Amino acid sequence: MTDVIDCEFTMQGDGPPLFLIHGIGAARNTWARALPVLTPHFTVVTYDLRGHGASPMPSGEFGLDELVADLERVRERTGFETAHFAGHSLGGMIGPAYALKYPDRVLSLGLLSTAAFRTEDDSAKVWGVVRAMEEKGIPQVLETLSDRWFTDGFIAAHPDVVRNRLKQVVETDPDVFLNVFRIYAGTEMAPWLHEVTAPSLVLTGEFDGGCNPRLNRLIDEALPNSELVILPDLKHSLLLEAGEVVAENILRFVRTLN
User: Is 174 exposed, middle or buried, given 0-12, 13-18 or 19+ CB atoms closer than 10 A?
Assistant: First the structure.
């Protein structure tokens, strides 16, 4: 039996519903730069994954199925029958998994900075990060992650944003953080992505190491109804660096469906 947690969520804006799903060790505030673009056109629902932000802690290990069940509970509580969904990183895996289970609920999908079709080498690298964190501790490995997440120019210009992001990770319960990182490392959408029929925006940064254009081209090819966007120069934390650009792409994509 899949356990379900009532996650904390925020609703703002006006228009058709859009659910936004954040990634590992983040919270709903990761969408702050995207919201001014989105809220005039959508009723935006942001929420904190279980054990993240203000949401309750899980009672033990959990998997992708539980994260999908949590999202369905948020949807039930908002009262929206159908909606648009977009997720970043791990959120870009939760969204398609949700669409696979609840296809009639999903008007469109955004797969932002996520990964599928990993080679053995790709998988070894991401599991290497997990193992390093398990052995050395999360704070000790974080500095290497900031270079993967942010461009050099952004790190130089906005050290406070980078510092706050790393602080957010360190303040996430380590068991929860490693649990979600293992889900991200161990999830392979390749076997079932072709069954996700919702119109899908596949978007990543040009220099995102783990969720790179090579993997995202394969995601785009597997999905029956999708569009691929590669944002120049950006790495993994494109919501914090260029959230408004991501939001503009989501808005443009949804408008093409009408």
Answer: middle
pTM for this model (two decimals): 0.97
Give the Cα separation of 54 and 42 in Å (integer).
Answer: 23
pLDDT at residue 143, as a whole number: 80
Nearest alpha-carbon partner for 240 in 31, 24, 46, 37: 31
Edge-first strand order for the sheet with 83-88 is 9-13, 43-47, 17-21, 83-88, 106-112, 200-205, 226-231
In angstroms, the Cα distances linking 227 to 35, 134, 139, 191, 202 are: 22, 37, 37, 20, 6
The CA angle 8-111-255, to the nearest 5 degrees, is 95
Q: What is the mean pLDDT of residues 154-180?
A: 95
Question: 114 falls in which pLDDT band (50, 70, 90)?
Answer: very high
pLDDT tens for 83-96 read 999 999 999 999 99
DSSP string for 98-145: HHHH-GGGEEEEEEES---S--HHHHHHHHHHHHHHHHH-HHHHHHHH
